[in-house]
Design brief:
The chain is mainly beta and about 130 residues long. It has 1 helix and 11 strands. It is globular, with a radius of gyration of 14 Å. The model has no long low-confidence stretch (mean pLDDT about 95).
Length: about 130
């Protein structure tokens, strides 16, 4: 059974940092990539960053570049999203999701993150609230 479990969300002041974790189980690492998405109230699900589990190829949304870093701890089967210089606009529920590597490779080559419907498995999300 595939499981993706997010943790690390919370309340932080603007300008602060958080590190989100996505514990991955039941997936073959060489066949999948992990993406982080977020959804603010009343808005659609937005891709933030994604990373290939086998090669570490990372892609970021414009809103995340220079502030967020996605990384992998293969030994712990965990993907992290380090978020710095947080802004009130970053307030959302953050989800991690798994996408097939072949699709991720195409997206990465295009410098984009494919929409949520390209991802096969999802976690339940973790709330991030940034106070101004």
């Amino acid at each position: 059974e595939v499981q993706l479990v997010e943790s690390g969300g919370g309340l932080v002041q603007a300008g602060g940092s958080l590190r989100l974790s996505c514990a991955v189980s039941g997936l073959a690492f060489d066949e999948y990539a992990i993406g982080w998405f977020r959804q603010a109230p009343g808005k659609g699900r937005e891709g933030v960053a994604c990373i290939g589990l086998s090669d570490g190829s990372a892609t970021y949304a414009y809103s995340a570049k220079g502030r967020f870093t996605i990384s992998i701890d293969n030994a712990a089967s965990t993907v992290f999203l380090q978020m710095n210089s947080l802004e009130s606009e970053d307030t959302a529920v953050y989800f991690c999701a798994a996408e097939k590597s072949v699709i991720h490779s195409t997206a990465h080559a295009l410098g984009t993150i494919f929409p949520a419907n390209e991802y096969d498995f999802w976690g339940r999300g973790t709330q991030v609230t940034v106070s101004s």
